[in-house]
Amino acid sequence: MNLRRTALYFVILALIAVHARADDEDGAEDAGEDGGDEDGEDEEELSHRNSLTWGRVFVDGGVQHRQFFKARFGDDLPFEAMECAVAEPAIGCTAPKNDVNGKIVFVDRGKCTWATKARNMEKAGAAAVAIISNDEALTHLPGPDGRDVTVGTVHVTNSFGEQIKEAIKRQPVKARLIPIFCEKESGTSVCLPVTEEERAAHVVTEGGEVEVENTKLDFLTATFGLPVPVGSLTLAHADPANACGGELKNAADAKGKAVVFARGGCPFLDKARAVSKAGGHAAIMVNNKPSLLRMDSLKRYESYDIMTSMMMVGKQHGDMLVAAAKAGKKGTFTQTGLQASTWQQLRNDVMAEQWPLDEQERYEMFKKLHKEHAASPDRINFLVSAFKDADPKADAFLAKFSKDN
Length: 405
Fold this sequence. Notes:
This protein has 405 residues and is an alpha/beta fold. The chain is 37% helix and 22% strand. A hairpin with a 2-residue loop joins strand 10 and strand 11.
């Protein structure tokens, strides 16, 4: 009798184990179908992102990113690019008089607590708050009186705040507040966003196209200054013609315009600063060759006072631009996603030693490069010029190629 009971007991245990295993398999299948593991990874990634305490501000059309520190109060920062506004009054110690709903609101430091400023903006519907420092130092703003504040709040430098204020006066500005995580790879710190979406947005504007009297010109931006202008600006010719000397003699005429000048005579930064002081909205430098590069400042912090958008165009457009400026014509700016590396690669591709010795192979290489750069008249002309230097029969081939295409 006892033996039968024992056997029955083991049979019941075996049935329970079979059912439990089946339930586990069904649960695993359900998790696979619903992306359960992926959901877990996404939640972990999001939690990591929201735990980060510093990051970078990326402005739409911006040529550089600037740093922020997250405050010790307030909730998570928004993911999306959002319109920016400066509170009115800018000190932020009272409710804003302007519309800040759904925007990243910039307020000045001083006269009341940081939490008070954030609270006032939150009550007015702000999506995030950026408190502008009175110098270049950043801190994780304390907020012992900010336990009720839920809007994401950050601290930005004074120079960046001044640039944003000036940019907002000129055109609509959108920006992202992207938290950054640093990890070491092969002994070097690599600092990037955590989420895939924000990694894709972690870019600056390196170039685009400006159209003047139906002529489209490639441009590459400097690594400093304000965002690329939106829409059209009236052109003005700098005096002196290379924008050197510290100030423009025709500063009054340059205000609010796109100022054209030649390369050479002084550093890029000096030219940009002269246009900036004159109130020029764009500084268009004509290169001394038909190719383009991004202009840089040896010490980045020395360029933080620049309040203009600086760009370079090819030498071949110099005379046309000067004539258009003297005639008061306009230039229309478009962001095309052009990268500095595109011009660098083209320069490398068409160096004399890169062209094949075999005639047919040269023609195939030309066709390939022509297809890659067909959207840009400037790059096509640069390619054609290099091809003519490399092939004694280029004119005949080009005539046939033009007819066939």
